[in-house]
Design a protein that fits this description.
About 15% of the residues lie in helices and about 45% in strands. With about 180 residues, the chain is mainly beta. The chain has one domain (about 30-175): Sandwich (Immunoglobulin-like), CATH 2.60.40.150.
């Protein structure tokens, strides 16, 4: 059996060794690009075919929930892993149909110009009596850093890929 002072000495030695492994590294993570949900593209309402646009005509409603990003500077580029939570609900007109929603992740440069955009499709599975479902999508991106531009000078925008009609519907029904 080791004596208490010997045990403390062993623990202190282990802590010193582990600190070399980064366990006690208090270096803050590098600043990531700003990430946000594009206003007016944060939700989508899908109606059944036809002219009706009231509550009884809704097949699905969906919204983008929390988004998270982590990044790592690798030479002259920043590697970004983005997680996008998407939630969907069946409407009165869904009739058990399957659902797949298109959403995008875009990168803008310091001047606000879109330099990359990719559209993804997220499938949803609803069980027999399930009214709501959610998924979390994970996207990896690499952004080249040129000159004095830093990772935090870029923006990552997330939103649903909407038709002109869906975009107009969102704008008209936005809470004031």
């Amino acid at each position: 059996m080791t004596s208490p002072p010997a045990r403390w000495l062993a623990l202190a030695a282990a802590a010193i060794l582990l600190s070399g492994c980064g366990l006690f590294d208090n270096t803050p993570p590098p600043p990531c690009p700003r990430i946000s949900i594009l206003r007016d593209a944060e939700r989508v309402t899908l109606f059944r075919a036809g002219a009706g646009r009231d509550v009884s005509d809704i097949e699905f409603e969906a919204e983008i929930g929390e988004i998270r990003a982590a990044c790592e500077i690798k030479g002259k580029q920043v590697a970004v892993r983005t997680q996008v939570a998407i939630f969907a609900a069946r409407g009165a007109a869904s009739a058990g149909k399957p659902l797949a929603l298109a959403f995008f992740v875009a990168i803008t440069d310091p001047g606000g110009r879109i330099i990359a955009k990719e559209v993804f499709e997220s499938p949803f599975e609803f069980k027999a009596n399930q009214q709501r479902a959610g998924v979390t999508e994970e996207i990896d991106q690499a952004i080249p850093l040129a000159g004095q531009v830093q990772a935090e000078d870029y923006d990552i925008l997330v939103g649903f890929q909407l038709s002109a009609e869906q975009l107009e519907y969102n704008r008209r029904s936005r809470p004031r």
